[in-house]
Give the backbone structure.
Amino acid sequence: MSSIIWPKQYLPGTTDNFVSNEIFVTNLTAAQVWPNLVDMACWESYYDNVSQITPPASGTTLSTKGDRFSFSTFGFPPLNAEVWESVAPAPGSPGRLAWRAWQDGDAETALEVYHAWLVEDTEWGAVRILTQETQIGKPAAQLATTRPNPMLLGHQDWLNGLARISKQ
């Protein structure tokens, strides 16, 4: 199975917070999942923890490295974001989507995030959807100690919703 390609400054274990969520779903393909993941116009229809979405100037699809967008999640004001990786799935190759998001501020409020996704078909006929996120900053360190873990639960809801809408 494939793994996330991490920029050095965001390597898991070196940041203030890290979460990993993964599901395997039968009767679904990466090609069916991909459009619902990269089209920001779909997000609010299957993920309750996102709002105030401003898509890139090029449209609602996160398909081009360098595209800038913003969205609000986990109670934060809208985060600025930039696509760092967007490669659609192909036979034998996973779909890859990743963005850097940030909130400017002082030492107490600044936040930096790297959120990556893999969508790939397995040999046994299921699709694997993996999302992992690292975070840097005091707000991230606070999230890391919160129980139950809001990032872990929120991202699991995102995965489950993505699978559900992709099966429709």
Observations:
- The chain has a mean pLDDT of 97.
- The longest strand covers residues 111-121.
- The beta strands are 17-26, 50-54, 68-73, 79-87, 95-103, 111-121, 126-136.
- The two ends are 26 Å apart (CA to CA).
